[in-house]
Amino acid sequence: MKRPILIHPDPRLKKTCDPVPDLTDELRVLADDMLETMYDAPGIGLAAPQVGVLSRLIVLDCVKDENEAARPLVMFNPEILASSDDVNVYEEGCLSIPDQFAEVTRPEAVKVAWIDRDGTPREEEFGGLWATCVQHEIDHLNGKLFIDHLKPLKRQMITRKMVKLKREMARA
Description:
Layout lengths: L24 H16 L4 E3 L9 E4 L12 E11 L3 E8 L2 E11 L1 E7 L5 E7 H14 L10 H20 L1
Antiparallel strand pairs: 1-2, 2-3, 3-6, 4-5, 6-7
């Protein structure tokens, strides 16, 4: 089931999420719903707070080549264990900040630990777009948006555009 995506500014997007103590069928359904919502948007990542759930859950799939098999990842309680000293600059966007993009500098590679949808602990190193995406989504779990990495003036400009967008959506 597709879920509505919260649009910035929304206080729920600025809250730190609680760890998932136990995997439940309800949480697995949420993960499936989030994947469906992400693919439909379309996006490459989505965090639970973006659909109004303050739990440490993210989903991502950075496969863009249509000839390549999709690789949906569901991560409960993801945690960055290590980051490279080398950095990458990507033009990031966010489903909670539609049609706004900005260059963000992040570590080029990260090692992440998480629990998968079956309850199995996993660890993997991610590079390139995957590294950027997983860091972006984990930021959401800590109440941080990609615009929080920008200079104040640019961040305020984007926030004003989102306030205007929300007003227009409320009138529609």
